[in-house]
Design a protein that fits this description.
This protein has 250 residues and is of the alpha+beta class. The protein is 42% helix and 16% strand. It folds into 3 domains: 52 residues, no CATH class; 114 residues, Aspartate Aminotransferase, domain 1, CATH 3.90.1150; 60 residues, no CATH class.
């Protein structure tokens, strides 16, 4: 009997979950009120049990003001907040928006525009997209992908799908996967920023004195808006930041 049990244990320890998001999906229909879910990771060499706390009341008071604002997306924001917190992520406030992190790394962010509200998956480019819901906002966006919504019913219909994508995003982070980014020299400098650099030698010197990562962050941020007026506004807002040798998030 001991030999049989030992053989069974060895076989169990060598189980590899190639697509663990299938396991995640089993928990999407769990009864409300279940405080946590357990994911078994028996793949050598990191055999372990990961316990992901999933608490409904894990709302960060610092973020409450965002959800209490009287905006056209208030109900949608609240629904998205509930869904994301239900995935066991930690709620923080970054760039004036609710940002959800896993082990101190950004996973997803809630944001809104005039035409739609969205969740932004920071490494969405690495996710599978069998439902065709991931959107690359512009050709300059390398890593992040949007999931857009226009009403709360649409969010409710896609709740299970959205959770599956978030769970996969967590798994991507756990695996240490990285998006291969373009070099700084490959980025196109927005015309609005280029004009400022030509006009101000001090700004140009300060910008190119930044680390490549900080330069890329600025170019990416300045390039995102579709409208020139918005791009120009972003440049104006961060000129002093650049002159002081600071990065976008410093």
């Amino acid at each position: 009997m001991a030999l049989i049990l030992a053989a069974f244990a060895r076989a169990l320890l060598n189980i590899t979950y190639i697509i663990r998001k299938r396991i995640y999906s089993l928990f999407l229909g769990r009864p409300e009120g279940l405080g946590f879910f357990v994911i078994l990771d028996l793949r050598p060499p990191d055999r372990k049990i990961i316990l992901v706390n999933q608490l409904k009341n894990n709302m960060n008071p610092k973020v409450d003001w965002f959800f209490s604002k009287d905006t056209q997306w208030q109900k949608e924001y609240e629904k998205l907040r509930t869904i994301i917190l239900d995935c066991g992520l930690t709620e923080e406030l970054k760039w004036g928006c609710p940002c959800y992190v896993f082990q101190n790394t950004n996973i997803v962010l809630i944001h809104g525009y005039k035409e739609y509200c969205e969740v932004l998956l920071f490494k969405g480019a690495l996710l599978n997209d069998p439902n065709g819901i991931l959107i690359q906002q512009t050709k300059n966006v390398q890593s992040a992908r949007q999931v857009r919504f226009t009403n709360v019913r649409e969010i409710a219909r896609q709740e299970r799908i959205l959770k599956a994508y978030i769970y996969e995003a967590i798994e991507v982070e756990r695996a240490g996967l990285k998006v291969k980014l373009k070099k700084t020299s490959e980025y196109k400098i927005p015309e609005e920023f280029q004009k400022k650099l030509k006009k101000s030698p001090a700004l140009k010197t300060a910008f190119y004195a930044l680390t490549p990562g900080r330069q890329r962050a600025y170019l990416f941020y300045f390039s995102q808006p579709k409208q020139s007026k918005t791009r120009e506004s972003r440049v104006e807002k961060y000129m002093k930041h650049i002159l002081n040798g600071k990065g976008l998030n410093d």
